[in-house]
Amino acid sequence: MPKAASTIQSNIIKAGTLIPGQQTPASDSGARVIAVTSGKGGVGKTSLVVNLAISLAGMGKRVVIFDADLGLANVEVLMGISPPCTLFDFVYGKKSLEDIVVPGPGGIRLVSGGSGFLELANLDKKRRQKLIDSLDYFDREADFVLVDTGAGISKNVLGFVAAAGEVIVVVTPEPTSFTDAYSMIKVLSNYRVHNEVKLVVNQALDRGEAAATYNKMKMVVSQYLTINLQNLGWVSKDSLVSQAVKEQKPLCMYFPRSTSARSITLLAQNLLVGGETPVKYYVGAGGFINRLMRLFGQSGI
User: Fold this and answer.
1) CB–CB of 67/111 below 8 Å?
2) What 3-state class would DSSP assign to 110?
3) Is the pLDDT of residue 300 over 50?
4) How would you label 257-284 residue by residue, b for 16+ Cβ within 10 Å and e otherwise?
5) Is the pTM higher than 0.70?
6) CB 29 within 8 A of CB 181
């Protein structure tokens, strides 16, 4: 098991954000903070995040994307925008919170992390509390906060996944993607970071291939792990996805009748109704950042 996973789990317990075998109880308010991750790159995770956000916004939900893929700017590239400032600028008082929330296509909003997330570990107590208090803004102004993590199982990725209230793991039918996605789920299960993971099968040729991929993952997870795997849905393989990426246009806005866009709309609907099980855990935006500061602050990231 990766050492990073053990470090994160130890920090979660020390920080008082999680007792082994339990999760944070639900609150009756606040945004749903959902980390979207994958075991490897190249599975269409960021494109899925952007289009899922737009689909939710089209259903009347207020959505903010936190771009937490540190060192990259894939969300901005896919949306064809260039944020003038990042979370780093807010953390150090250079910009207001409203300044770093950038309008995006379809009514969604974006917060670019830059190096700001890592700088959370260096804040003194006063600044930390001010940041947490300020982030009540998202709980008032957003229904969903989608956190686009990096790929792989690094300390950074595990920190974001552990801090979120819910987790979506994106997998494709390819064997390497399947193996790496299972490794991510295994880490979350073994260290009891989450009791449930939502699985999205992306780039499937048809419903049959998607079902086979999910059923195979469900079988392995049920046999070897102690975590609930929820089938959130699937997205078909579609050449229009690549075309949209090349043109820096969100698929769901410019090709709304495409097979993939319709698939993503169904994913959004499943999130709203809770899929197979109702949503039980909310951490809110302030709680998410609070967890991150505790995790990163004690892990030496």
Assistant:
1) yes
2) strand
3) no
4) ebebbebbbebbebbbeebeeebebbbb
5) yes
6) no
